[in-house]
Design a protein that fits this description.
heterodimer, A: about 260 residues, mainly alpha, about 80% helix, B: about 300 residues, alpha/beta, Rossmann fold, four-stranded antiparallel sheet, membrane (chain A), transmembrane (chain A), ABC-2 type transport system permease protein (chain A), transmembrane helix (chain A)
């Protein structure tokens, strides 16, 4: 249970450095601003708002979570505070878990307050309110924050310098957001139907859902059953959830393995 | 059960060998000084005990716990001042100590510990602005959290002024009197000699001497270097000096004959040399100190 001491310290560090307040302010301004702006200029319907908000949220939450975590372990290795930390009775696993828990708490609080402030506005002002859909949006925004926070800490554990962990995170994000879909397109257009690499529309749709953001977004569509996208129907929402959890656990597991085999 | 045991520990980084077949046993309750010049491998050995670094071969135990398999149990029981650590810039001294108390499930009073290491006034200051000496004192306060059964300190006096180094030594002595085993490294003999029961000297990753401080001192006190200046150094003179019982080494340095003796008397040596027909023009004697032993071991030329 020694990770709890690390998580507590990490969380209070975020409070002390005002990072928690900065993140909360960011999400409140962004989400409340979007709800108010959309309601004022377009129409007061949750479905419309969420359709517009989805894209920016899917960008903002992962980027913020990665930025908030990418130096979490590499920074301690670089500065030498890791020696102070590990001369106390913490295992390296405690460090990875403690950092994930501490920073997840920060991200979840910031996103939760952002989503709830926008929700309060929606319930007070909007004429067409779809509570289930909004709640689904809120829950999956939190899941997105959770998954990317874990990924960020896991990636941070791979490197011993902040510059290298930043490159790793940027590479990870670029690879999954831009390169992966590109690879799928290239493979789809260049292989013949009898090749083993042939991507049927079904396979391609599934492979498109592998990146964490896509898996979570499509899972949300599946669970709230409002946006009946073909992709949501092609892959079971439960499978998508499993993919998201696999990212949440898998990247920190790899990061821990690297961190644990390293000489400090 | 030894407090610390390193058995056949070697560590290689690629082609570079940091430690070669290191064997050290430290008994419970003693103060062990781990001496050696910078770069000798002292920190590597200590980092292996802390599981910061994994040995290439060999094994290490502390209080019977395997340093790799049971590192957490070890670090729960010992206090550590690691080499090259950094403090958390944004945390105050008290927050550092509180974190250590929280991590160890200890019940110490942070202010009492900061007072003991001499920085009570810095309790509410952020450690980012501390001098190296203050950081070192804060590190010692953290090491003392949980009233550990053993202190493992890597260069505890580094960054401290002479006064601070003396205070550090007196804290280590107090802890040892309480029954705490103290293992600390230093590249300065004086700091080790003053308080240690045993000392080991590490050079190029190899333990070149290990004994109780008394035995080391005795061995060196017994050695006298007699430098005899002759009109001409002859092979006969060298042979005559060598033939005296108790003479351990004779070497020639220009017109000087350098004779190392254990218990042979100065007069016997001079008489023997003069009996070969050589004329003694001058002579000087010098008793070796522990310092000489240390520098003899540690200023050896690096093997190519």
């Amino acid at each position: 249970m020694s990770w709890a001491a690390i998580a507590r310290k990490d969380f209070s560090d975020a409070v002390r450095s005002k990072a928690l307040w900065a993140l909360t302010a960011l999400f409140v301004v962004f989400m409340l601003g979007a709800a108010a702006g959309y309601g004022y200029y377009f129409d007061t319907s949750t479905l419309g708002l969420l359709t517009v908000l989805s894209g920016p949220v899917n960008f903002l939450i992962p980027i913020t979570a990665l930025l908030a975590t990418i130096h979490s372990i590499s920074g301690e290795l670089e500065s030498g505070t890791s020696k102070l930390l590990l001369s106390l009775p913490h295992t390296r696993r405690d460090v990875v878990i403690g950092k994930i828990v501490g920073r997840s708490a920060v991200m979840l609080i910031a996103v939760f307050i952002g989503v709830m402030s926008a929700g309060a506005y929606v319930f007070a002002v909007y004429t067409t309110v779809d509570a289930i859909n909004y709640l689904g949006f809120a829950v999956f925004a939190l899941l997105l924050a959770l998954v990317y926070t874990s990924i960020g800490v896991g990636l941070s554990a791979l490197a011993r310098s902040t510059s290298r962990s930043t490159i790793i995170a940027a590479g990870f994000y670029t690879l999954l957001s831009f390169v992966w879909p590109l690879i799928l397109s290239v493979v789809a257009y260049t292989t013949s139907e009898d090749s083993i690499l042939n991507l049927t529309p079904g396979r391609r749709q599934f492979l498109n859902q592998i990146p964490p953001t896509d898996a979570i977004t499509t899972a949300r569509a599946g669970f709230t059953s409002v946006m009946n996208t073909p992709a949501a129907l092609a892959t079971s929402k439960w499978v998508l959830l499993v993919i998201a959890i696999a990212w949440l656990l898998g990247v920190p597991a790899i990061g821990y393995w690297r961190f644990n085999t390293r000489d400090l | 059960m030894p407090a610390i045991e390193l058995s056949g520990v070697s560590k290689r980084y690629g082609d570079v060998t940091a430690l070669t077949d290191l064997n050290i046993t430290v008994d419970e309750g003693e103060i062990y000084g781990f001496l050696g010049p910078n770069g000798a491998g002292k920190s590597t050995a200590i980092n292996i005990l802390l599981d910061f670094v994994r040995p290439t071969t060999g094994s290490a135990t502390i209080m019977g716990y395997d340093a790799q398999a049971n590192s957490q149990a070890i670090r729960q029981r010992i206090g550590v001042l690691p080499e090259g650590f950094s403090v958390y810039d944004r945390l105050t001294a008290r927050k550092h100590v509180e974190f250590a108390i929280d991590s160890k499930n200890a019940t110490n009073d942070p202010d009492a510990l900061l007072d003991r290491v001499g920085i009570p006034e810095a309790a509410d200051r952020k450690a980012g602005g501390f001098s190296t000496g203050m950081r070192q004192r804060l590190g010692l306060a953290i090491a003392l959290v949980g009233d550990p059964e053993m202190l493992l300190l890597d260069e505890p006096s580094s960054g401290l002024d002479p006064n601070g180094a003396r205070e550090m030594r007196s804290i280590l002595t107090e802890e040892a009197n309480r029954g705490t085993t103290v293992f600390f490294s230093s590249h300065i003999l004086g700091q080790v000699e003053a308080i240690c029961d045993h000392a080991g000297i590490l050079q190029n990753g190899t333990l070149v001497a290990e004994d109780s401080i008394d035995a080391l001192r005795e061995a060196t006190d017994a050695t006298t270097t007699l430098t005899v200046t002759l009109d001409a150094v002859t092979d006969d003179a060298v042979a005559a000096a060598n033939a005296i019982p108790g003479v351990s080494e004779v070497s020639v340095d220009a017109s000087d004959l350098v004779v190392r003796t254990g218990d042979a008397s100065k007069t016997d040596v001079l008489d023997a040399i003069e009996s070969t027909g050589a004329t003694v023009q001058d002579f000087a004697t010098e008793d070796a100190s522990l310092d000489d032993v240390f520098s003899a071991y540690t200023t050896e030329e690096m093997p190519a």
